[in-house]
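Box 3.1 A note on notation
Throughout this textbook, protein chains are presented in two layers. The first layer is the amino acid sequence; the second is a token string describing backbone geometry. Keep the layers aligned when reading.
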Amino acid sequence: MSTSQRTYVVGVDATEEGGRALDWTRAAASVGDSIVAVHVWDLPMMVGIDTVAMSTADGAGQRAIEAHYASDEDRALIVNVDSAFGGRYFPEYEVDATLLVEDVPQTWDFYTDFTTTLDIEASSRVGRIAMEGSITEQREQPEPEEGEEPPDPVYDTTSLFAQLEGIPTSLDYLVDLSPEGQAFLHLSDAIDLISVELWAEASNGAISTILDTDYGHLRLIAEDVPASFDADWGSGGGLHGTLTTSEPLGPVELVVSKRSRNNTINTRARYSEPSAAVEYTPFTREIDRRYWRQGPGDENAREAIFMGRLDGLYDTSIALDDDEDHLLMLQDGAGEMNFLSVRGTGFQSLTAEVTDVATAELSIPFDGDHPFFLGMRDAAGETTLVQIDNIPDTTTVEVGSDHADIDFDSSPGDVVIFKGPLGTADVHADITKVIINDAPTSVHTDWDVGAEGTLAVDVSNPVAIQMLTQDSDGRTVVDLGVDDLTVSWSTSDWVTDPFVCSPVGCGVHTYLTRATLDIDADSPISGMIAHYDKTAGPMPLDGDSPVKDFVEMVPRVTALFDGFEGISGSTQAAICDFGACAPGIPVYWATLGVDVGSVTVDVWDRGHPHVGLLGDPDYVGNDPWHLYPLSHDAHDHVLPAHMFSPI
């Protein structure tokens, strides 16, 4: 503690104990300190107390209290501090605070600066300590220009509420609120409850900070706290934060915010609203419904299965539930941490970092699983959300613009990963969404999506994975029952090849549409892949067409797989322009090799107003080009085994 201009208040009388109190004060005081000796009859009546001594730190930037107490038995203690501006103890502040200590031990030493430090030493455990109060200071303002009226004074008030229960004989608490900050709590034994909250308010409603810090709201609530609690945070080298304990914790919550207390409530509320749902317009859904219901078996049964899974992929949302374990870490536009909220039950360590990728590692060595929510926002305003049904003992997450990796020491149940805007994403949003049902112990996914793209999935055991990606060009939907696999694809149309050999001969050809697809699987897989183009002003569908928006997603390539291990090739439809071929005759062909199993691939042309052959876009009449196998039609669509049993 700083010793600048301290004031000591000591209760004395003619007894030997009073003399010892005064001797202790003289020894503790430094040159320039003040010692105020108060006769015992001027103090509130206290029976059986040998020594009561208190010192305060006055002067610029000082606002600390140090107290020492000795008695013949455990007693209750109430300390009220009420000091106006210019007062004796805190002249630069208006202080109104009350300290309650239940069952004060026979000897008890206490020190706090009301903000970042708390030290307690006692001869026995304390039942309960509660402190409530406020510290107000006048804000410095620029001098008015000549002839101008001085501005009204602005007062910044820091409010405090703290409560500790089951306190061991020694406690050291420190918070360093610098940009690269830290906090620690070291105890001689476990503590039942810690609850500390500070928040700032300005008299004119402006943004305010807690005393000399950059923060507007701090809160720590912890139950069954072990003897060691350490945390650090910052943004140097990337946004990062760490929280560790010597033993698994009971419920603990930490909030560090540069905004107001109300902002904390509002931020939590925003993440408590459902996010990760993707708009599935009636127009696009009707195109899908008409297509996916076609195939062997009862079409209504197929529709229920296919559309049920697609609706689940689009509609599944995630949100931060009340009292749910979570990590929220948000950056401002400058890359500084603006808001941190952590809540965990039974966990022992948590580490998170945001650089070019977002990473987090969580350790919860306790019996029983529970859900966990992760929310991160980077300097560019991009948000990443993860929700896990049941957190195993150890979890590691890494999410980047082209990959998402999750590793567990046991299955966490269902996992949803989403990168995109909060709320429901429309057709214009850039998003990535992955749903893993009954997740394995590890899932590593890498992608490069678009008209030409790749998808690689590496899992510890076979699993059902759904993925939806969307950018300014279009959307890709994947639903696969897989082990390890790699998928790559490309699409193009109205491309002229100076020399190609087709079934009608060799020469210059114009491709009406062309697609390539390569899949390599370690074990038989099943599922569907659909790529959509983002189309402005789509044409209405045949028959009863739903109302369409100005911009809709329409299919470009659709594929069904069942029980195969690999596929490689290309499919195309073209017209021979000239050469050793039959000019003007449309023809389509495929060069495709399938290792095992069944596959059907369809490509959807977008029509052309000057080419009668193409006519309307294929989505209008649900009549895509059946490119593989060449002789298949809509009733030959295979049945992905992981989606349902054969109908």
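The chain has two domains: 6-225, 280-317+451-647. Confidence is low (pLDDT under 50) at residues 41-47.
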